[in-house]
Amino acid sequence: MLLYINVYSIMRGNRTFTMIKPTAVKKGHIGPILAIINDAGFKIIAMKLLRLSKEQAQQFYAIHKERPFYADLCTFMSSGPIVAAIIEKDDAVNAYRELIGATNPANAKEGTIRKLFATSLQENAVHGSDSDENAVIEGNFFFSDIEKF
Ligand code: CMP
Questions:
Q1: Are 104 and 1 in contact (CB under 8 A)?
Q2: Which protein residues are within 6 Å of ligand 1, measured from CB?
Q3: Which of 10, 18, 34, 58 is most buried when burial is the number of CB atoms within 10 A of its CB?
Q4: What CATH code is carried by the domain that includes residue 141?
Q5: Distance between Cα 2 and ligand 1 center (Å)
Q6: What is the domain count for the chain?
Q7: Do the domain assignments include residue 59?
Q8: pLDDT for 65-120, tens place per residue?
Q9: How far is 19 from 21, CA to CA, in rounded Å?
């Protein structure tokens, strides 16, 4: 059992992908959110400010295409600029999901990014990858190799 835990922890990745969503950008929360990420010990590997087209948002969130909220989510995510970033820390996916809090801000713990800055389940301030595999796929969606440091 001890061996299993050690091997498992070694296998966990050290990078995750995040977006600061349109409402949080519009409200001027880029700086405060990046400060929380920085203070939590994440290193920035790649970062850009951009606006997704509707088609790009649909492609990014294709995993949710059968869900009832998919169309609204893609309209929202293409409604204004976002910040996309790859960030690095030990066990990054889990550490970042802990930092941002539950997807629904109503369930997010005090002090988490979503508790502090989200306005609804859809407009929940930030996205964070849910697995190492998706972190790589999502990071590669936005950044080429020469944009990662
Ligand atoms: P995010 O981490 O970007 O991943 C998918 C997004 O879909 C999620 O954050 C929410 O913004 C949104 N989402 C998830 N579940 C629902 C839901 N039940 N209703 C509306 N939006 C949702």
A1: no
A2: 64, 69, 73, 103, 121-122, 124, 127
A3: 18
A4: 3.30.70.141
A5: 36
A6: 1
A7: no
A8: 999 999 999 999 999 999 999 999 999 999 999 999 999 999 999 999 999 999 99
A9: 6
